[in-house]
Known about the structure:
CATH architecture: Roll
Order of helices and strands: HHEHEEEEHEEE
Oligomer: single chain
Distance between the termini: 9 Å
Strand order of the largest sheet: 2-3-4-1-5-8-7-6
Number of domains: 1
Helix content: 10-25%
Amino acid sequence: MRRSNNLPALKKARGAAFGIFAALAAVSGPALAAETCNTSSTTSQVGTVWWSELVSANPDKSRDFYAAIAGWSPKIVAAEDTSRPPNPGEPEYTLFMNGNSEAAGLSKYEAKGQNEARAGWMPYLQVASVDTVVIEVLKKGGKLLKAPYDDTETGRIAIVEDPDGFAVGLVTPVSAAPAH
Length: 180
């Protein structure tokens, strides 16, 4: 699974937490192929799941569950700097490891507002232009949960909701092949 080294950018994009596993079927065709951002995204990567994240009310239970059923090894890191363990009292993030590869992420669900999705799996889809896709989301009956913004290390990010109420992240990464 490809992902950005800068998970804090995704954490900030979600606010306290977002998550639910969903496909954003309404976002397809020309919107995914439009190029409006200065990125290295290639057409072959557009439309792929760029990162999958589980937002859980009980991270300990979720870590145990996915370790047992998927064979993933949970690696607990600092939410703001995934290159190191968390300091006492610091928010944590879990990287699920499949051998030496990162398979998915896990964060704690802490809904604080109306524009936050339920706990669950949330994919981040790679798109050629977050801004163009957000317009298509709105045209197709979806909602904008987190407005597009730029992160210098990750790229352009937004969080939307499909017509069925499922959240999905949109990412136009800075790099075509994020480093692990």
